[in-house]
Every structure is written in C-alpha cells, then in structure tokens.
Amino acid sequence: MPTSTDASSGGGDDDGDDTGSSSDDTGTGSDDTGTGSDDTGTGSDDTGTGSDDTGTGSDDTGGGLKGTGFEVGHIAYDLQATDHSGSPWSLHDRLGTKVVLLAGHMYSSSMEQMMEYLGEVDDDFSGLVVVALVGYDEYNNVATEDDASRLASEYGVSTVLYDGSLKLIPLWASGNPPKTYVIDQSMTISYAEHGGVSEDDLRDAVENLGQ
CA 117, 113, 78, 27 torsion: positive or negative? Predict the structure, then answer.
C-alpha cells in the first residue's frame, strides 16, 4: 500500500510537512512540528519541542529556550548562519553571554558607519559577543564567506555572518535594515533600534545590561 509523505502525522520515518510525534521522529519538511523526544527536524519552520530536538531551521525553536520575537522584552530567536571562517554559528549557543547584533547591508551608509566603531566596542567590553549579519556587500552583491572574512578583518569585528539566502535579513532587520540589538545573558532583547545608532548610544545600551 502506498504511503503518503507530504502531510504525515504518523510514525518514526515520516517526512514532508511532518507533524509526527514518535520518539524517533526525523521529519525534514519545511513545516516540521514533530514533538518526539528525538525530533531532529531540519525544516525552515521547525518548531519541534522534544527534549533532544536538534532542528536546524532558521526559525527553529526546539529545545529548552524559546524565541518569542524581535523587539525589546522578547526572547531572541535562535539566529543560525555561517560565519566568516565558514563555521556554523548559533545565537542561542551564546546563552549566558551578552550579545550585540547588527543586521543589515554594507551598501547602507548607516551600516558602514556603525561597522567603523563596532570593533572598538567589541574590544572595550569584556565578555561581550559582537556580531554583524550582512546580506549585501557594499557593491550590492550578495555577501559571501570571502566578503564576511574581509569585513571581519577590515573592521576588527570578531564575528561576521553572511546571509547568502537573503532570508535572515528581512527577519532580523524587520524589513528596514540596518537594525541593532543588544541581548542580555538570558537572550532577552534589551535594546532594538532601526537605522543608524551612535557609538555613545550603543555603549550606553551595553552598559545598561550591568554585570
């Protein structure tokens, strides 16, 4: 008997638009919402809640920490991208650490001006993670790993991520890049601002996090 896999709600090997709840659920559909204890869905909207959920989608909220939004007071979603060294990077892996995140395009004068001082902020605050997420480079080309590496070196920013799919910037910049976030140790967004942010304002936002 043929078995449908495009809207399955069944057992251990289901996939497609997976909503399975078996303990070995490994659905990879874009709408995977499996809740099995070993859920490993990799869909872009994976929201598996199993205790061992390892979904890797851009909107994955599996596991213990649940993102709630992109504004002040929200728990930040788990930004997942590739960094300038070609390594996978996850925001939620920085739980327990303060984070400054700048998301935008390098052709923007506001983004460029902020990158000019971002490296100094990176150096001046011990234990702070400073990261830039770049969509387009200064020539309006989709940023690559080489671009990210060059920008990290040029501006002295410890982590530069590139959004080759151009799917992350619309989310993290809320359709109006650049956008700057300051995120506390619990992954709660304490500061979120569109457009250019002065160095003094960013430093104040970081200092307001306290120790």
Answer: negative
Q: What is the pTM of this model?
A: 0.71
**Beta bridge mates, 160:** 132
pLDDT tens digits along 42-58: 444 444 444 344 444 44
Q: What sign does the dihedral 29-40-84-175 (CA atoms) show?
A: positive
Residue-wise pLDDT tens digits, 70-92:
999 999 999 999 999 999 999 99
Q: What are phi and psi of 6, to 5 degrees?
A: -95, -10
Phi, psi of 203 (to 5 degrees): -60, -40
The domains of the chain, with CATH numbers, are: 1-64 (no CATH), 80-207 (3.40.30.10)
> Using CA atoms, how far apart are residues 64 and 92, in angstroms rounded to an integer?
10
DSSP, res 7: B
User: 76 burial class (0-12, 13-18, 19+ CB within 10 angstroms)?
Assistant: buried
CB atoms closer than 10 angstroms to residue 147: 21
Give the pairing of strands 98-104 and 179-183: antiparallel
Q: Are 16 and 3 contacting, i.e. CB atoms less than 8 angstroms apart?
A: no
Three-class SS state of 25: coil
